[in-house]
Fold this protein.
Amino acid sequence: MRFARWNGGRIGLVVGDTIRDVTEAAGIDIGEWPPVGPVRMIADFDRRRDAILNAAERASPVPLRDVKLETPIPWPHKLIAIPVNYHAHALEMSSPAISRNAGFFMKSSASLSGAGEPIVLPDLPGREIHHEAELAVIIGKRGRQIAAADALKHVFGYACLLDITVRGKQERTIRKSYDTFTPVGPWITTADEVDNPANLDVRLWVNGEPRQDANTSAMIVGVAETIEMVSAVTTLEPGDIIATGTGEGVGPIAAGDAVRIEIPQVGEMTVRVVQGNGGGNLAIPARV
Ligand code: MN
């Protein structure tokens, strides 16, 4: 199943190039604040699955091209990211391949955006802002101290994720947490539709030009081991999102660009880049 969030918080199942509204069967109140309905839907998924499938069969198909796709889980408990998780990216960054030791970091959940929403660049003269194409793992089942051998049972699904990053020496969290710096989408593809998360191509283009082309088999810490590592420290909750790191080929984006990410079996989306205002601390040259 492919779960999309669209047109102001509705939930739909994507079938071919259409979307079927299942908002009510998914238990979503689109006026709710905070918007935790998708988290609750994932937590209750086994109980809701049949009702969601029945609702999808009854719903009139709406062409995907006519809807605005939003980030599937706007209010997760955690947005976790793995640094330097591909050797080739470590080499291009002149960084040691550190993820096995370095663990993980957090991004602000408020940085999440969707396929139909632009990346809004802060105003940071002289600072490069880069794309990082990544596989997102969406947790389905709560767990602590999950063994790698059991880890994939805790996965609800997968999505494309862009980990937008200001290059520099400040903490990763501030450089990667501007609003719209984590587009996720275009939807969540449930884990049963992905043959092997350890063998997925992750490709990225900017304005049609190929920039990144990696395979998740080249991850230093794979999906299952990542879940083991993170859950050794913190309880993973339904709806938590893990950005699993990027391959080589990262590079700058600028206003006017169109960034396309594709992960076969998972999805494909093109996100526009626009210029915004303000930059806060990162507008001041780093002295570290
Ligand atoms: Mn990253």
